[in-house]
Design a protein that fits this description.
- Helix content is about 45%, strand content about 15%.
- The strands form two sheets. A six-stranded mixed beta sheet has the order 2-5-4-3-7-8. A two-stranded antiparallel sheet has the order 1-6.
- The chain has two domains: about 1-40; about 55-225, Glutaredoxin (3-Layer(aba) Sandwich), CATH 3.40.30.
- By secondary structure, it is α/β, with parallel strands linked by helices.
- The chain is globular and about 95 Å long.
Amino acid sequence: MRPEIPRPLVLIVALIAVVGAITLIELRINATGAGDTRASAKPRPAAQHEQTGHPSRVARETSRTKATFLPDELNYPRPAEITNPTGFINTKNVSIQRLAEEHKVVLLDFWTYDCINCQHTQPHLNGWYEKYKKDGLVIVGVHTPEFGYESNYSNVRAAVERANIRYPVVLDNHYATWNAYDNHYWPAMYLIDASGHIRYKHIGEGAYRQTDAMIRKLLAERNRRYN
């Protein structure tokens, strides 16, 4: 005859077994949940107001984001030249090299007229041009179309007139200048100092005070060095 196991001991063993089973189930659930969270996490959107602007098709695919930056003062890069333009508005020609030889401060703006982010930045560009052009600022709008209708010269010229743009605009229908700057977003602003170095870059809307301050800084440098 088998000895009878005390009832309290049976209850304790059963309780331990239940607790162990519950713990194992919770561990499995947590492990599965963590994996699901990682798999369903979405990358940060590439296009955001006041920060990144309107990305190109390539940029949207890679979900890249960029923000305003100032390069290392010992490594200011040289700007690329306007490359293979397909037309001009408000000018007959534009040369970054020539503007550097004239010791101009250049704000190069990549845009396309049907981009809402570009439309939001336009009043600030117009304001800077009117405010600082006598002090040596030149703004060059590089119009790089996203859609086919934005490559039509008449459409771009009409958009320039509607936006009251007075500074030179280069049509970059083949993305030649866009690629020369390894650009990926609309709008994107590059500030080039009077000695011909890129000193500042900003993508998208916003940072208007910061950009204005940098324009004034580079104009002041120009005045001290070349006037």
